[in-house]
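[Q] Does anyone have a clean structure-token version of this?
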Amino acid sequence: MKKQLSTADVESYTQPFLDFITENPTVFHAVDAVAKRLESNGFTKLSSRDQWNGKIKKGGKYFVERNGSSIVSFVVGSNYKPGNGAAVIAAHIDAVTTKVKPISTKPTKAGYVQLGIAPYAGALNKTWWDRDLGIGGKVLVKDKSKGKIETKLVKLDHPIARIPTLAPHFGAPAYDPNPNPETQMVPIIGLDQSGPDKSNTLSSQYTGLLQGDTVFASTQPPRLVNAITRILKEENSATTASDIINWELEVFDTQPAQLGGLEKEFIFAPRIDDKLCSFAAIEALIASTSNTSTHDNPNPTEDDSIIKIVGCFDDEEIGSLLRQGAKSNFLPSTIERTVSALAPNQPIPDLVSQTFANGFMISADVSHAVNPNYLSVYLENHAPQLNVGVAVQADPNGHTTTNS
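[A] Here you go.
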């Protein structure tokens, strides 16, 4: 008989995932959290710029990042032989969101300070109205003492922004099904403190920029720059706004992930697609090494002879075409370099082709569960229910990876 988990069991089992979602709202924070989780479990970080020969060993555990937004981790079996297969789980770790524009300063309107944002994939739809939004992401900072540009993560995870709806009392305009995202879905981030006669205008904002002032901060709302700088100062007190070279910031829902339903059988959370599969795959890889893939393991199991790989990729929501996406060379080059490091002086192209032929890959992503209020839109016998089992997607036109 199937064992039923108690409410306490459910809460303790799901809490690590809930914390992961809440604490890591941007793709950069999520990948950083995965990297730290791997390092704490004995994985060694590799650099794509370094030579891997001599660094990768049988029984070893490794990971490599790209752009700070994609990560591939793998475990080499203790009994691995060149040409053996690779077992791969591939997921994406980005999520539908909105991003701060390269020049995000907006002219003040009616006393409000607003922020220029752009949709990433299918964002800025009606689900973004009236939400408590935070801001965070990756900042490139010039460290004058080292003479280097470094990457820092920042997060303003209390509500910073809101995209307000028009009250229904205004009639038809409030029910416009196609609002203009450039003019009607611009988030408010504060009140203008310059007074009614000193409202910002585009011409005054960019005068310095057009005359040769190329400081990145001059293209951003001053109070947002100050807020980001305050966070950076916590790590390096010498940091100033002029040290910010660039940033890639996301706007995100600050509502924490939590359990819901009468028996707490649901996960109510933002960004489940596809951090759920990324989190599960990483945890599975870590768990698979608890009794295997060690140099002194006295009882090796069958999967000790393969390479186990988990890839968590960026840019899936926009087509996976960038260098950190699943369609890039990130995963195949990682496999090729690993095989090469484990098979010195052997014909690498043959071994790589053999590795692929003996391998298996699961493309792991979330699917749409059936909505009981719209049953008529689903194909007969193809309406996945929650908590029943894993959904396997198949498409006769080849738009999914499932085949026989």
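[Q] Thanks! Anything notable?
[A] Confidence is low (pLDDT under 50) at residues 201-213, 292-301.
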